[in-house]
Amino acid sequence: MIPALRNGLIAVAALLGATLSAAVAQNLLRYIAPAVSAQVVGGTDVVSLLGFAFLGLAFVCVGLWVPGWLKSRLALVWLLAPIIGAYLAALFQEPRIFGCAAVTAQGCWLFLSPFIVAGAAVGLGYVLRVAVVYRNVV
Questions:
Q1: What CA–CA distance (Å, rounded) separates 69 from 63?
Q2: DSSP readout, 7-47?
Q3: pLDDT grade, residue 87 (50/70/90)?
Q4: Whole-angstrom Cα distance, residue 98 to residue 108?
Q5: How far is CA 13 from the centre of its chain?
Q6: Is the pTM of this model over 0.90?
Q7: Whole-angstrom Cα distance, residue 10 to residue 4?
Q8: What is the pLDDT of residue 107?
């Protein structure tokens, strides 16, 4: 198998798995604790906000473990490329979001947050991995 295709498939599969596991955790919480999902904070329900935390945790795990499976020195690029690609595809599907100021508009942060959380969490997981690997080598 071509290494680039292998790395791409591993990165996409890991990111899809992390996204699905975060969605399952969010829906499980919504099912187990319906009183929590009925509470609204800042215009959205608490379970949606906790869903971002689940997403962040899942993507930190991806940043920690998946670079070991990739055969490349640019593992972070392989992990961030599908996130950026999905973000660009979402932007082109909904062009009005280009004129959206995330501070003033109501729905902008909800649209942008999953991509920002995912990218930052993968980066954090990768930095933690590099720090642990470097610490064990020295």
A1: 11
A2: HHHHHHHHHHHHHHHHHHHHHHHHHH-HHHHH-EETTEEHH
A3: confident
A4: 10
A5: 13
A6: no
A7: 10
A8: 60
